[in-house]
Design goal:
The longest helix has 16 residues. The strands form three sheets. Strands 6-7-8-4-9-10 form a six-stranded mixed beta sheet, sandwiched between helices. Strands 1, 2, 3 and 5 form a four-stranded antiparallel beta sheet that branches. Helix content is about 35%, strand content about 30%. With about 300 residues, the chain is an alpha/beta fold. It starts with a strand and ends with a helix. It is built from eleven helices and 14 strands. It has two domains: about 210 residues, P-loop containing nucleotide triphosphate hydrolases (Rossmann fold, 3-Layer(aba) Sandwich), CATH 3.40.50.300; about 60 residues, Alpha-Beta Plaits. Helix 3 runs parallel beside helix 5 and helix 5 runs parallel beside helix 6. Bound molecules: adenosine-5'-triphosphate. The site of adenosine-5'-triphosphate has 12 residues, from strand 2 and helix 1. One of its GO terms (molecular function) is ATP binding. This is ABC transporter ATP-binding protein. InterPro entries: AAA+_ATPase (IPR003593), ABC_transporter-like_ATP-bd (IPR003439), ABC_transporter-like_CS (IPR017871), P-loop_NTPase (IPR027417). Belongs to the ABC transporter superfamily.
Amino acid sequence: MTTDSVVTHQLSRSFGSVKAVDAIDLEVRAGEVYGFLGANGAGKTTTLRMLVGLARPTSGKATVLGRPPGDPRALARTGILIEEPALYPYLSGRDNLAVVGRYTAVGARRVEAVLETVGLAEAAAKRVSRYSLGMRQRLGVGMALLKDPELLVLDEPANGLDPAGVVQMRELLAGLASDGRTVLLSSHALSEVGQICDRVGILAAGRLVAQGTLAEVRGEGALLITAEPQAEALDLLRKRFGPQAVRHQPPAIALTVSPDQAASVNRQLNDAGLDVSGVSWQERSMAEAFFDLTAKEDDR
Ligand SMILES: Nc1ncnc2c1ncn2[C@@H]1O[C@H](COP(=O)(O)OP(=O)(O)OP(=O)(O)O)[C@@H](O)[C@H]1O
């Protein structure tokens, strides 16, 4: 039995000379929320479309729930929301779900439960034309949930939502994962989904530049040092720790060493006659890692 829900090996897709997806090795483990992150145009939608059989890879392979992409047996266990959900505006939320249930042969059995799950039970009888964008997006997730899938593939489920809508979507997605489902979702905005993801993959210009837990991808933190005269402090730290470890981050200096070196660094600066007014530990933010990684890729 596999513990991976999705695995790709050197998966690629080109459009003419554009390498939209360039040899990526994804690994989405069963039961996790996997955030597939990247700027607009990075290749997220193209990847997700390949995983569900809507687009063919130019080269490389993918396995989804142990089967090739688009295999009906895997699709039967996969809930999909890619791009805008197709909704009937003049029907209620409940009827929209019932229609989908009918034409996908999963039936109406789960409609009420799904309305509950996506937080639309109270608005179930309202016409969808009167729904907010957030409600429509949640209804789209509801459609994907009707078949009670073990894997959900959601393309930008929080895109365009206002802050309250983002919070509701995040809570919904986190809840789905705690029910034991695997959730593979894409986003161009780390702040939207970063905190609910067990692991993330970062895509930049078609390449997977990082994959791992948030902590792994976030990378190292730094000691933030405020000392005067600053030029002398910079000089001393560069000599002792090497220029790579020292970054001028006005008004402070960032030194990439482990946090337990704080006291020793402080002492070294004091011993050199410098006036140290602050030494604190700064975690490297996920956002920084994201922008560093994508910037590196864009420079290639
Ligand atoms: N059918 C297509 N024909 C030609 N080029 C395409 C096609 N689909 C995607 N592309 C190109 O492939 C690249 C990746 O697009 P994709 O839509 O996968 O990115 P994305 O990360 O999902 O971005 P967005 O969030 O803007 O949808 C872009 O350069 C895009 O212009």
